[in-house]
Structures are given as C-alpha cells and as structure tokens.
C-alpha cells in the first residue's frame, strides 16, 4: 500500500501542486495542502482501499485542506494578506464538491505547463530554477534535492524559500508564455531539464542512487513537456537525446565503477527499447524541419547507436551534423566535440589544428581530446603532458581513473 | 496591479553620449513615457542630477548631521528611475527592456511592497 501511494505521489504530486496553485494563487499553500493530502492518504487508503481516481481524491482533499487552512487563518487574522480569488470563497464551496466530479481534469495539463514556466522563469537564478522544478513538479523533498546537488540541506532550503519569495513578491506570473515569447522562454525550460539530466548522468560522485533517480526524473519531466507541447520539436529532441544517452548507462561503467568510453562499450548492454523510442521520437521531430541544438545532438547520438560496431560508425554523417550544430550553437565546447569527428574523417593532425585557440584550457575534456590526438600522432611526451593536465582538472574519480589507465598505457 | 521601480544605473567613469544621440534618446524616452501613460502603467518618472549634488543626512543624538556627496561612492550610480504599475513581472520586464534599449544602460527592476503589507 505504501508502495502504491508512493507511485501515486510520484505521478500526481506535480499535477496536484499545479492545480492548487491555480486555484489559490499561492505556491506555499498549494504545497502544504498537497503534502497534507498525501499524509491523509497514508492513513486512510490502507483501511478504506485506494479510491477509484487517486489523483482526483488527492486534489479534492488538498483543496479542502487548503480551504480549512485559509478559514483558520481568516478566523485568527481577519485581515487576510491578499484578497482571495472568487472561485475559492464565493459560489458553491469547493469543500462540498463531489470528488467523483472532478472539475480539474480538463485544464490540468495547462496547470503543469504553467508551473514549469514559472519554475523556469529567466528572472530566477539557474540553480533556483532547477531546485524549484525538482521540488514542485518532481515532488522531491528539499533533502533529496540537496543531496542530489551536493549542497547542504539548509542551503537548499534557503534557496527554495528565496526563489518562492521572489515569485510572490516580484509577481512572476503563473502562465504559459504567449507564442511570440516562446522562442525566448522554452530554451530556459529545456536547459533546466537537461541540467537535471546531466547532473544525474555525468557526475559519478555523490549518492549514486539519487543521481540515477535524477536522470529518471529529467526523462519523466521531458516526457511531460513533450506531451504538453507536442508542436515543439526541440522538446521532443531533448527527450530523444536523454533516452539515447541514458540507454547506454549500463555500458558506461564497469561493475567496479570504471569509465568505459563509447568506442569500447559492450553494445549488447545498451537498452534497446529506450534506443528504439529515441529513434521514433527523433524521426517525428526532424520531420517538422525546425532543427535545433537538442535535435541535432540527438541525431548525433542516433548515428552512434545505429552502428552495429564502433568501426562501422558513419563519421562523415556525424561530422555533417556537428557542422549544423556548430552553426546553431557556435560555442568552444561544440567545436571541441566537432574536432573529435574531424579526427575520424580527416585524421588527427587536421583535428589538432582546430583545438588551438578554443580557450578551453580549464576544461578537462579539452586536454583529454588533445592527449588522444597527440597519442595517435605518436607525439607521446606531449600526449603524456596533456593527460596530466586533464587529470588535474577531471572532477570525478571514475574519469581520473580512466585517464590514469590511458596515460599509463602510453608506450613511452 | 503591482508597482515596480525601474532604476537606471550609469557608469561613473563613462563618457556622456554626443548631443545628437542624447537628443534622440530624449525623444525615445518621451515616447516611452507617453506609451506608459496610454497603457495606464505610468506612476512617476525622474532623471537625477549627478551624485556630487547629493547630501546625506544621518540621525544623531544631538540632532541631524549632514555630509556632502552620495551615500555610496560606486562604479555606477543611480541616474534616474521610473515607477510603473504592471500586472506581473513579465509586463514590468517588457517596459524595462525598452528603457534599457533606449538608454543602453542596465535597468534594475524591483517590486514595491503593497501599501497594506
């Protein structure tokens, strides 16, 4: 039963907070009421059984709790801080609403979309956007968010309080941006979801379990966004990219936790169902002919995973996609990854020339790419020096262990 | 409606724009103020004289005490401000963006507390 309630919690928490926020216009009240409702479910469902519509039950119960709370506050303090929306106190009291007749079922989709755009508003700092999205839409506790981002819990709690205060006091709207604003606003949302995913995927430090959860949560949120915005190919592209990347998780480390690079991975360990879904999604969004950075990165991953063996990789196609990606996002990091494809198509000497002047001296991947190119050119002492530079900058134990092994393998 | 302060920050060591540019900027600011008024968003607007015209008054047991000059000497100073009324932050940021584009200066947007709070 607790397990069942846990599943409902994961699936419905964000929806319930979103609906309650629309009805009451206040995030804190919505959060507390939804938490109250789940606490009540933990008491009642084991005795009474799971109601026919668990989501409807949670929303109705939470709404009643919120109204109780407001009435209590109103009794204690006649002067309410802000006038409440008519829908709450006027007309038929929602307290008596029939749980079976759930009026929220229609606009719920929009409510969650509104909440996503509020949490990812560009007027909030990036770490706050990530924390709010995980807390309010993902239903992670403050402690879980703190652990996932290796931040002390009081720091994370403060970050969340500050962000919610800014939403309230600065009047950050609870609304899906207009069509004309979307080109500015959607990338911020996508970036937050990708950041959550990468935090779970890239970092080997910290609590492994929580971090794998972070990937699953990012995929769940990306799936939700794709359902809510089916006409945005970049949202679909991001979901495809996450699926392609996550599908290789099991092959990416040895049982001992050592890092395995793509060319050396055991392809039978890849999650074929996830790859197939990624391909279907990618085809669907590419058909819209509005390419963007996430679709292009997903396409690059698709080409990699389409190859039955590393040797069969279609590098000219990958290089072609990197050219397009670099045109969209002319950043040094994209140029660095493109250079890797150039090395496969035109040789390491040509690729090495591209690395100069990228200004990525503080980036460990830059040094390990450089080291690999120098190694392939037989310039071994220089390669060793580059591995040393990469080693001094690599953030995770798994990456450092990998670099150590490769450097030790140089026939110096 | 919420109210917001749009504060314009001017670099202390910056060169003032040439007269023609200044003239054009004034015209565009007039147009912005007219649009704010037409939208019912205008509450108050003012450009400030430079910080060396400021005087700071501090409370003291033996009566107020004053010093010449601004409260904070910084690399930037408050050059002017608008108080606007807007339904939400997005609307306020829209006006702020126009102000920033006209003046080529950074604009800080701060919500005012509601009088009742």
UniProtKB/TrEMBL annotation, chain A:
The keyword Transmembrane does not apply. Residues 116-167 form the RNA polymerase sigma factor 70 region 4 type domain. InterPro entries: DUF6596, RNA_pol_sigma-70_dom, RNA_pol_sigma70_r2, RNA_pol_sigma70_r4_t2, RNA_pol_sigma_r2, RNA_pol_sigma_r3/r4-like, TPR-like_helical_dom_sf, WH-like_DNA-bd_sf. Residues 185-284 form the DUF6596 domain. Residues 9-75 form the RNA polymerase sigma-70 region domain. Keywords: Sigma factor, Transcription, Transcription regulation. Belongs to the sigma-70 factor family. ECF subfamily. This is RNA polymerase sigma factor.
Automatic annotation (TrEMBL), chain B:
Residues 15-104 form the YCII-related domain. Gene3D superfamilies: Dimeric alpha+beta barrel (3.30.70.1060). It comes from the Bacteria. Transmembrane segments: none annotated. Pfam families: YCII (PF03795). InterPro entries: Dimeric_a/b-barrel, YCII. PANTHER family: BLL7171 PROTEIN (PTHR35174:SF3), BLL7171 PROTEIN-RELATED (PTHR35174). Belongs to the YciI family. This is YciI family protein. It comes from Actinocorallia aurantiaca.
């Amino acid at each position: 039963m607790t397990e069942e309630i846990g599943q409902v919690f994961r699936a419905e928490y964000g929806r319930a907070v979103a609906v309650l926020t629309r009805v009451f216009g206040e995030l804190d009240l919505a959060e507390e009421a939804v938490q109250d409702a789940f606490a009540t479910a933990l008491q009642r469902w084991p005795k009474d059984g799971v109601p026919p519509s668990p989501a409807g039950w949670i929303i109705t119960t939470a709404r009643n709790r919120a109204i109780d709370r407001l009435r209590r506050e109103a009794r204690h303090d006649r002067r309410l801080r802000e006038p409440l929306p008519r829908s709450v106190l006027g007309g038929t009291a929602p307290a008596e609403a029939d749980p079976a007749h759930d009026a929220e079922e229609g606009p719920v989709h929009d409510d969650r979309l509104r909440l996503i755009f509020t949490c990812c508003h560009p007027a909030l700092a990036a770490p706050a956007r990530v924390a709010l999205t995980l807390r309010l839409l993902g239903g992670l506790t403050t402690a879980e968010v703190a652990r996932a981002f290796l931040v002390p819990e009081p720091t994370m709690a403060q970050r969340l309080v500050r962000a919610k205060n800014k939403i309230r006091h600065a009047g950050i709207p609870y609304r899906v941006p207009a069509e004309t604003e979307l080109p500015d606003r959607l990338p911020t949302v996508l970036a937050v979801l990708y950041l959550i995913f990468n935090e779970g995927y890239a970092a080997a430090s910290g609590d492994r379990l929580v971090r794998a959860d972070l990937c699953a949560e990012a995929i769940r949120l990306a799936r939700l966004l794709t359902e809510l915005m089916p006409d945005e190919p970049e949202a679909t592209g991001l979901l495809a990219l996450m699926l392609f990347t996550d599908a290789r998780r099991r092959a990416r480390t040895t049982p001992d936790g050592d890092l395995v690079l793509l060319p050396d991975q055991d392809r039978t360990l890849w999650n074929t169902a996830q790859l197939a879904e990624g391909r279907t999604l990618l085809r669907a969004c590419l058909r819209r002919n509005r390419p963007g950075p996430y679709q292009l990165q997903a396409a690059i991953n698709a080409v990699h995973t389409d190859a039955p063996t590393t040797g069969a990789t279609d590098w000219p196609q990958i290089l072609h996609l990197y050219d397009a990606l670099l045109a969209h996002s002319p950043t040094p990091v994209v140029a660095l990854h493109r250079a890797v494809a150039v090395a496969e198509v035109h040789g390491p000497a040509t690729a090495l020339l591209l690395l100069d002047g990228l200004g990525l001296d503080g980036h460990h991947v830059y040094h390990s790419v450089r080291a690999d190119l120098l190694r392939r050119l037989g310039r071994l002492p220089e390669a060793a020096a580059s591995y040393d530079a990469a080693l001094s900058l690599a953030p995770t134990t798994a990456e450092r262990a990998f670099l150590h092994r490769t450097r030790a393998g140089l026939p110096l | 409606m919420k109210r917001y302060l749009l504060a314009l920050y001017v670099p202390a060591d910056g060169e003032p724009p040439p007269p023609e540019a200044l003239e054009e900027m004034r015209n565009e600011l007039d147009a912005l103020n007219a649009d704010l008024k037409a939208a019912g968003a205008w509450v108050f607007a003012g450009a400030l004289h430079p910080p060396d015209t400021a005087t700071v008054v501090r409370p003291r047991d033996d009566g107020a005490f004053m010093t010449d000059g601004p409260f904070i000497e910084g690399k930037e100073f408050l050059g002017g401000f608008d108080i606007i009324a807007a339904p939400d932050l997005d609307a306020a940021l829209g006006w702020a963006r126009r102000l920033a584009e006209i003046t080529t200066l950074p604009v800080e947007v701060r919500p005012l507390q509601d009088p009742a709070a």
